[in-house]
Amino acid sequence: MPRSGHPKPWHRGSVFGDGYRRPLDREKRARFRYLLNAHHRGGRLTRAARDVGESLLRRVGTDGQCDPCHATLANDAGCCDRTVRRATASMRDLGLLRWQTRLVRAGWRVEQTSNAYELVPTLAAPPVLPRARCGGQNVRESQNVLIQPLLPLPSPAEAAAAQAALARHRAAMEQRLLTGRLAGRPAAL
After folding, report:
1. For residues 147 and 130, is the Cβ–Cβ distance under 8 A?
2. Residue 65 to residue 117: CA distance in whole angstroms
3. Tell me: domain 11-125, CATH 3.40.50.300, correct?
4. Which of 52, 65, 72, 170 could potentially form a cystine with 61 if both were Cys, beta carbons 3.0 to 4.6 Å apart?
């Protein structure tokens, strides 16, 4: 085991208290769900990992609190605790999830209470990871091939054009909503 300067390196990244809090609005929830499904369709997440991500999304509170235990997530997703550990690790490697270990003092000791999870619904491209090897069971599957970048990042011009299109669509929808209310009709969503 490599020697670190910290006397207890397993506590690095841990926190006494609440940990991460990132509230997710409706758009960010939809973006996270889209990224889960896109990674699942791309073969980077298993069905169980996608279900664990969905259960994490359901457990995020309005203030951004998300700290269920692995047993709760396993029960929600219909899998075992070990699958939850593998799923959260793969979501972390893809850039969809971060967490901090939450600690409490119990007398003279320090104990872990849970993990404080933070769902990261961004389109930033994660680092290119090597494809997992099968363990040598099949020669064709055990070739070490790198995965291509997951989602290409748009150019600044494409991003500006997309934002302008969204602004035009929003203005049209607001105008439609206002004209529906002025005419005495109930607003259609």
Report:
1. yes
2. 8
3. no
4. 65
